[in-house]
């Protein structure tokens, strides 16, 4: 999710007067913004993203399984294609990974499980987490522990979860050899020491590599717009954006919260085509919010860096951590 060098585009439409006055007003900052837009030369087609239609594979969607993934903070990683990975061997992988963890624990390496705990490793497929028939099936890895001192009916505890997925990855799959399985996104929830240990096993077993994934301010602005665009039966949480102000000796953060209905009304006023979202619309959405903030507090957020967005649907931080709280419907 590296930031792309995409120029700002002159909007072909304007926010309706009521919302324009509310979010921008006739501030000097807004007039300067409009002046810059008029003087800028734009030679490229605006960057656009199609809104995917409902997946034809949604009949395989298991709401209970997906609900397990909600309300948890996930750390994002990219993953190179895995060599000789097979979905028919998931039970064998469970046994091999368990033996690997036990061996590393005996060596005294940090494993986030108590000494008196038994544990098991479970690999399982995650139905419905794919966009097209061509996408490889997502799968889930769980470490589950149970105290040896407890009764047989004691509740088992999930101490670590990771899932691997590829959604609408047609462009990535074009040049992947048959011996490789491409699941480029890995999400982990649990102790980092466990993540590192399990990542080592995957790298040794499937000749792949994990890389921590950060989220640029460019992509955070897209997430803020797209999640605001989602249709919800009711709004629960405010739309919140967090900007980091670089200063010495320590950084300063500015938190900006907008009522979710106001944020949705603003987005609806700038969004045009129902089948796609454009860079122009995202820029205008963020610009209006920044102009409104400048009008009231005389702080130019353009001099800061967007580091976190939080909505009724999900939240994301530039350090590559996300939390999904609702299923997303555009």
TrEMBL record:
Q: What InterPro entries would the database entry show?
A: CENP-L
Quote the cellular component terms of the Gene Ontology held in the record.
Answer: chromosome, centromeric region; nucleus
Its localization reads: Chromosome, Centromere; Nucleus
* Keywords annotated in UniProt: Centromere, Chromosome, Nucleus
Q: Which domain of life is it from?
A: Eukaryota
Give the UniProt family note.
Answer: Belongs to the CENP-L/IML3 family.
PANTHER family of this UniProt entry?
CENTROMERE PROTEIN L
The name this protein carries in UniProt is Centromere protein L
